[in-house]
Design brief:
mainly alpha; two-stranded antiparallel sheet; 9 helices; 2 strands; 3% strand
Length: 190
Amino acid sequence: MPSPDVTSLLHAWGEGDPAARDQLIPLVYDELRRRAAVYLRHERRDHTLQPTALVHEAYLRLAEQTRMDWKNRAQFFGVAAQMMRRILVDHARAGKMAKRSGTLMRVDLDERLGALPAADIDVLALDEVLTRLAAFDVRKCAVAELKFFAGLSIDESAEVLGVSTATVEREWKAARAWLYAALTKAPREQ
């Protein structure tokens, strides 16, 4: 259950109180780290970014947010998911540029999409198809992003998006099917 202290601190931070931000982080740190660990557990074995580093980088980016209209804990984790996505994509791009060997950060889609038999895809390809999805259906993209990058449940995603759980379930089912099709076509078309 969301703590009223977290919501109060989010509101104070949104009104420009940096002390509220500093008090908030210890309250949400363990949850952010847990979500980062769940996500990174599906990365390739030699992946260099650790959950702690991902959370710290996300925190630095979140701390730069000023005058954010924080509504609640779920919205905060939704924004954190977007930050983690950007960090992982940046990390993958930097690794690809540094190595130029074609080794990419992998995402295990077995659990995430539920339709692929233990298939992996690189995070850059996932980012690309999520961007394409957002171009015509922002909500489906947001649901997928909350599932992939924040590990939010259906209920938490519904709270972040301000819609019913039935809507999130429907959007997730459609997004999953679209992502599966887009991700399985991409390698053959290149």
